[in-house]
Amino acid sequence: MTITSYAEAPTKTLTVGGDTFAYRELGPEEEVPVVFFTHLAATLDNWDPRIIDAIAATRRVITFDQLGVGASSGRFPDTLDQAADDAHTFIVTGLGYPKIDVFAFSMGGMIAQDLVVKHPDLVRRLVLTGTGPRGGEGIDKVVGVTYWDILRSALARSDAKGFLFFPRDAAGKKAGKAFVERLKERTTDRDKPLSTRAFRTQLKAIQKYGRSAPSDLSVITVPTLIANGDHDRMVPSMLSEDLHRRIAGSRLIIYPDSGHGAIFQYGEDFAPVAAEFLSADRA
Questions:
Q1: Ranges for the AB hydrolase-1 domain (predicted)?
Q2: Per-residue pLDDT tens for 84-98?
Q3: Is the pTM of this model over 0.90?
Q4: For the chain: N or C, fewer Cβ within 10 A?
């Protein structure tokens, strides 16, 4: 029986070269799966089930923990470039896929860009959400923004994602609360929380990424969908427009009155768009 609900997808492990990766897969079997790359501080349990389930209805979906995250072994690397190498090891060496589609959010979009730049023949279609290019203006400020919003959320006794991902107006607060509740739908076999050490390492790696020389994104020639909100405080919205300019033929969606988590706030609109995009031109 094919599992199409993320809440029911079992957590699996795969050991490659002494490293163990935790992952989940669901949806129909196929030769080219959609691999999801997640955000800062996230584990397997931080994907919005409404987006995962919408895509898994017709596609094979794979989510995974980078090394040093959740139930995966080892430590998170000091650079996102190395995280891209680890992802390649998991996908190609471990799972044996020579071709994949990618759905990436935030830090995951940065890792995915590094992966595609290094291995342009690996990816067939690319979805980049809430993210920006290597060397993008303002990305290195993520440390200050993150810690400030963690403090604000602690004082408000609420989840930090409500501050980091959503605007603090009535609609944003409502969307943030609904998103956090959706993340609780899975009640068994939940992932291990991220360690403080891994969280700090990820922040530093993002900061290095933001202060690095730009990558040559002209090597990305595959169909690419880019999405964000118009007021992203974590990865400035203008960087989504920058990606759009630098990736030839890409499609850009900017949602109004929303921030870093726009694809979750506008999930009912975005999920079918992403699903249709990822299902186009399948062999």
A1: 33-264
A2: 999 999 999 999 999
A3: yes
A4: N
